[in-house]
Amino acid sequence: MSKFINYLKESATELTKKVTWPTWPKLQSSALLVLVATVILAIVVFAMDFAFQHLMEFIYAL
After folding, report:
1. Residue 43 domain-assigned?
2. Whole-prediction pTM value?
3. 4-21 tens-digit pLDDT
4. 22 within domain boundaries
């Protein structure tokens, strides 16, 4: 049990004193970048799915 308590203490120390947290503007810009990349990826996947669906419908109609 003492190892677990030591682990928690060291983790708290590392998170409060050793980790460099991003500033609020940098965090916002990173979040915006992730949001834009996710939307672009979703659009690409949608376009591929749409094209494949119509291709398969064309093939099945033959």
Report:
1. yes
2. 0.68
3. 999 999 999 999 999 999
4. no
